Amino acid sequence: MARSKKQYKSSTWFLRNRKDHRKNKTFGLLILMIGLCLPNCTNQEKEVELPFNDKAIVAQADEYLDEAPITITAFPAERSAGGVNDYFSEGSYWWPDPENPDGPYIRKDGQRNPNNFGAHKKALKQMVEWVTTLTAAYQITADEKYAQQAIRHLTAWFVAPVTRMNPNLLYGQAIHGISTGRGIGIIDTLGLINVSLSIRLLVAAGKLGGENYTAIQQWFSDYGDWLTTHPYGIEERDNNNNHSTWWGAQVAAYALVAQREDLLVISREQFKKQLDLQMAADGSFPDELGRTKPFHYTSYNLRGWTTFCQLASTAEENLWTYESKNGNLKKALEFVLPYLETPASWPYLTHLETSLHVSRNDYLVFAYWSSGEEKYLDFWHQLPQGEDDHHANLVLWQNKTLNE
To answer: Any residues with CB less than 8 A from the CB of 290 and at least 6 apart, and which?
Structure first.
């Protein structure tokens, strides 16, 4: 039986349209089914009506029912120092040196090299879309076929020895002639936050269990250990910018799947440390303002922070209220709001970001959930839907069974 509208209480459902799904960006992958955090850190006093289109979501899922799993093993990477089961990517902003064509690549911040290897990244994004959409369709219809197809993809990526991805990112964001992998490659897997939350929904519904679930839990546990102990993970943790924010959000999400309280403790420590380091007295993130696309990276980081807040908060500790040396997370929202309202007032334009085209951003919804301040939700409604939003990615509504 499909869920009634009353069952969408305190939750959201977005359907974003785009003509060519192959051009979707990781930034467009909305992170949540984030009502999955503890109920204490989510505002539930008022029913929140946000746009959703369940018929379109189910129609999209129907297109995925016959899609066979495609993992990284389908795309051998000749330049990778790893094996067939190792994820590999190359840094987006690295190019051949015109003065030394056969030598190490050079960096051009903000300019993506289309010839760098990206097949594994695309496969990962595709899996995220398939799993979240299929899980959503199951939530809407309770039709077993959607859950089973989602589990089919999860099994291929995280269980089956021949096709699974190894639980590390040793070879992410490699640079030709310089490095076989780097810590900043870890941001490639932030889409797995969506997947981890889909897993929790499927488990709560009684559709994912047994040996498959145990193996999936072990994968996320192993990846959580790698993130928190390997030098690449430590490097990413200590980048002191959006990479460190998303590192913490990933650790929190995977800890929830693996049921690892020790990893959750680590993630909460990261939240406090990084907010102290990253946020200035005016609520800005100076490191992001120094990039070639300062508004993009400010928004990207703020999305990471609010996602992180939702995932790592507990019944006893709502991280939204954590006071860093320059204030709490609300100050970062307050820094951005005037520019969402009046984009022309943004004082940090660059040659790669010559104007601001603002649109709805889910960090406003997360801020409402965390704070209960309706102005964030009202402002979200006033903004236009973004052209770059993922065409079928979803924010799954709160599923209270996960918190009972």
So the answer is: none
Residue spans of alpha helices (H) in 76-143: 119-141
**Alpha-helical regions (H) of 313-396:** 330-341, 362-371, 374-382
Hey, which of 105-119, 227-241, 351-365 has the most confident mean pLDDT?
Answer: 227-241
Segments in 169-260 forming alpha helices (H): 192-204, 210-229, 231-237, 242-258
Structure token digits, residue 388? 């770059």
DSSP lists the bridge partners of residue 100 as 97
> And the tokens for 71?
């993992």
Bridge partner list, 215 = none
Concatenating the DSSP letter of every residue in 23-83 gives: G--GGGS----GGGS-GGGS--SS-------HHHHHHHHHHHTTPPP--GGGS--TT-SS-
- Of residues 17 and 104, more confidence is placed in 104
CA 179 → CA 79, 111, 117, 238, 263, distances in Å? 11, 19, 14, 19, 29
Return the closest-CA partner of residue 331 out of 305, 357, 295, 297: 305
Q: C-alpha 191: how far from its chain's center?
A: 4
Cβ proximity of 79 and 85 under 8 Å: no
How far apart (Å, rounded) are the C-alpha atoms in residues 245 and 264? 14
Cβ atoms within 10 A of the Cβ of 341, count? 12
Instruction: Give dist(CA 167, CA 153) in Å, integer.
Output: 16
Contacts of residue 83, defined as CB under 8 A and 6 or more positions apart, other chains included, come to 166
Tell me if 270 sits within 8 A of 224, measured CB to CB: no
Task: Name the nearest CA neighbour of 131 among 154, 111, 114.
Answer: 154
Q: How far is residue 148's CA from residue 60's CA, in Å, rounded to a whole number? A: 16
Can you tell me the distance from the alpha carbon of 272 to that of 195, in angstroms, rounded to the nearest whole number?
25
Reduce the DSSP state of residue 351 to 3 states and report it. coil
Q: What are phi and psi of 200, to 5 degrees?
A: -65, -35
Q: What's CA 112's distance to the chain center, in Å?
A: 20
Of 12-26, 34-48, 279-293, 361-375, give the lowest mean pLDDT range: 12-26
Is residue 117 within 8 Å of 88, Cβ to Cβ?
yes
Question: pLDDT tens digit string along 72-128?
Answer: 999 999 999 999 999 999 988 889 999 998 899 999 888 888 889 999 999 999 999
Q: Which residues contact 327 (CB under 8 A, 6 or more apart)?
A: 279, 281, 283
**Overall size of the chain counted in residues:** 404
